Here is the input.
Amino acid sequence: CYEEDGPHPELEQQHRFTPADVFNISIKIVEIQGTCKFNITWILNADASITYLKATKICEFYHGCIRCDYLEEFQKQTMSEHQKWQFSFVGFSVEENTNYFVDVYNLPPANINEDHSKIQKHLISPDCDDNSLKYCQNCIEKGSLWDPNITICNREFELEVNFTPSNFCSKYKIHICDSHECNNPILHVVPTTKGNNIRVSEKIRMNDQERKVIFKELIPYFPGCQNDCKRYSYYQTVCNEERISEPNATASIVNKLGIG
Here is the structure.
């Protein structure tokens, strides 16, 4: 198989006989050396026209076309008594949450003014939480294998949030609320360093008007997804005995920010 963009040379020729359509195609996602790709399998029709089949062309909207030539003329209509001829191609890199349109057709094609038939598959790739993508490098760098292991302790005048940072992310915010309705969302910026695998412990002090706040979620900002990264709300409550002094009524280091 090799790349063939643009019209194939068979279009310029008149063909007395042409092969039947592809019988069926199936597509699945495979991971090869950290890259997610499509494994495209097609099955040929079992009829006499298979002797005129020279190649099969596979096209994808974002990646162009691949042509797979058959090196010898088919001597039999099937591989065995009960199994049609079947071939596979692995290629075309896959991103998460993307629409893909794959066209597969046999060559030589129908002549001009005759029906040109093909099989088209439309599929939407899953997100990085899906097992077919989560182990691919582009998803790993967006946190697909990251477990922040969040623990919190909600004391009077202070909320302590602990988590394990990712090697691929250096920016985090903690989303907290002043009530379950979360009418006044609060975003607390966490200073951290990329590559730091030591637990981050962030103590958020409140003033006397905000004696309790509710942890909502941890928001990472991976370079590959920025403002659209997965957010993490699951946590465990772990409190160590520690006396917190009451802050001054005018002092507060919590910044209230609107969340767009």
